[in-house]
Specification:
With about 525 residues, this protein is of the alpha+beta class. The strands form three sheets. Strands 3-8-5-4 form a four-stranded antiparallel β-sheet, covered by helices on one side. A two-stranded antiparallel ribbon has the order 1-2. A hairpin with a 5-residue loop joins β4 and β5. It is flat and about 130 Å long.
Length: about 525
């Protein structure tokens, strides 16, 4: 088992002391100085920087010097002597000779505090734009790898960095959102109106995210395979050449850099196309979102039901308990018990035997034969009344009519898709005259495609809601205009290059060749 990384024990001790606010403010002062490329500060410069980071409380020089000394002791700051300076007095030498700068551990501690505060203030999100950006960067990498020119290595490096940044953002936001979602499912005791609105908005948000999620995952998996065909080691080698890492004697920057790239690439494959054939994590995310939608809808139904009822059994029992507590005496409590739980006079005492003449008038009630009592009398307060059985409706004709209508609609839909299907890329103007229903299907496909973002090659892809038909669309480069005629008029618009295919008949459509 690999040994877990250990954090130096004194790295974050500055956040737990009695003077944690001052220690943190001093580190922020050095962090702001680093942003301005100022690597060393004197005691007076630290005091000035404290005001810029929001520390306005007066602080004695001895206290500030003690704080700097403490941070040096924790190895968060390094103290150096300014031998190049000129000093007029011994006091000036004492104040300006010592300079402080952040150590590597200090930079890490400062970054850790910033990251922790950012995580506390941020909210998770499920962003389909990140998935599209990952697909775009992978497509760009595949295109760049096809060019052996070494001058393209710099762009390969930047594309790889952007790809890893998008993956980190996806993982971080997904983990945060999942944690917030699970906490939302456990929330109780809040205002019902607010609770209902938040959960309804979350359901809508999740439903929008899972739409076309599988299609986006398939596009990314295909793009990963395209890059892998060039060789992952080739990708990293060319990216390393474009990274321009500093060459320092006795220091190997390339090996750890390549190790980090390999780990990041493996993480990308685990999310979208595991090499062992396992379930991609993006599919697991789809299942989590689906389960959350079902759970939230169930909670919303329970809330709606509880708001629809004027009272509940729990509220009734609490009210009854208050009445018992305020009863004047034991007799009143017994009467309240009898009234609450129906222990009053028997409501079936008026019932008689089916043949009353067989029972002599002098026979005591306890010795007489029992009388049948309807269960409906106990639950509804009345006896059963047997009526005529309702006539069963004959639905054979209705079923046949519905079946015929469904078959007709299915045939019309198949005819429309057949009329629109293309054997390859073609112009919109080549479709010829269409009937009105088929033209409506075409407009729906065009609208779906234009709502999607174009990929790196300029093509837009979309599928129908049932996932049976896919359209690939590209704007005309020559600015041509198409006129499509229908039985009820004509349509004028850009002469798009389109490719419409049925996904049931073959592999998914690839990029349309120009």
């Amino acid at each position: 088992m690999a040994e877990l990384p250990r954090v130096p024990p004194e790295m974050f001790r500055f956040t737990t002391t009695e003077r944690a606010d001052l220690h943190t403010a001093v580190l922020y002062a050095f962090g702001e100085a680093n942003e301005r490329l100022e690597t060393a500060l004197t005691l007076d410069e630290v005091r000035e920087r404290l005001r810029s980071v929001g520390w306005y409380a007066p602080i004695a020089e001895q206290d500030l010097a003690g704080t700097l000394k403490q941070l040096v002791g924790w190895r968060l700051l390094d103290v150096i002597f300014n031998h190049a300076g000129s000093f007029a007095t011994a006091e000036e030498y004492e104040r300006k000779n010592l300079q402080y700068s952040l150590t590597k551990r200090g930079e890490a501690a400062f970054a850790g505090v910033q990251h922790a505060m950012a995580m506390l203030a941020s909210a998770g999100a499920l962003q389909t734009a990140v998935l599209d950006a990952i697909a775009d960067r992978l497509g760009e990498l595949e295109e760049l790898l096809g060019d052996p020119d070494p001058s393209r290595n710099r762009r390969i490096f930047t594309s790889l960095q952007e790809l890893e940044a998008h993956l980190d953002g996806l993982r971080t936001n997904t983990k945060q959102f999942n944690g917030e979602l699970q906490r939302l499912l456990r929330v109780e005791g809040t205002d019902l109106t607010t609770f209902h609105e938040v959960k309804a908005a979350t359901v809508a948000y999740l439903q929008e995210f899972v739409t076309n999620l599988e299609q986006r995952a398939d596009v990314i998996a295909a793009a990963l395979s395209g890059v892998a065909r060039h060789g992952v080691s080739v990708v990293h080698a060319r990216a390393l050449d474009g990274a321009d890492l500093p060459a320092m004697p006795g220091v190997d920057h390339a090996t750890p850099w390549l190790a980090v790239r390999a780990a990041r690439w493996e993480g990308l494959r685990l999310w979208f196309a595991p090499e062992d054939g396992g379930v991609p994590r993006v599919r697991q995310l789809h299942h989590v979102a689906r389960r959350a939608i079902v759970s939230l809808l169930q909670v919303l139904d329970r809330i709606t039901d509880s708001r629809r009822r004027s009272s509940s059994a729990a509220a009734d029992f609490r009210t009854l308990a208050r009445w018992f507590a305020t009863a004047a005496g034991e007799e009143d409590a017994h009467r309240l018990w009898d009234a609450a739980f129906g222990l009053g006079p028997a409501r079936h005492a008026h019932l008689g035997h089916a043949d009353a003449e067989l029972i002599p008038a002098g026979v005591p009630w306890a010795e007489a034969e029992p009388v049948e009592v309807s269960a409906l009398l106990r639950s509804r307060g009345r006896t059963e009344r047997m009526g005529r059985t309702g006539r069963v409706r004959d639905v054979v004709a209705l079923r046949a009519e519905r079946r015929a209508r469904a078959e007709k609609e299915r045939a019309e839909l198949e005819a429309a898709w057949s009329a629109l299907a293309t054997t390859g890329a073609m112009r919109l103007s080549q479709l010829g005259e269409l009937d009105h229903d088929t033209f409506g299907r075409l407009l729906d496909l065009l609208g779906r495609a234009l709502a999607e973002r174009p990929d790196s090659t300029g093509f837009r892809r979309a599928v129908t809601s049932d996932g049976r038909v896919e359209i690939v669309l590209r704007a005309p480069e020559d600015g041509a205009v198409a006129v499509v005629r229908t039985s009820e008029g004509w349509f004028r618009g850009p002469d798009y290059l389109i490719d419409i295919r049925s996904l049931r008949l073959g592999a998914r459509a690839g990029a349309v060749g120009a």
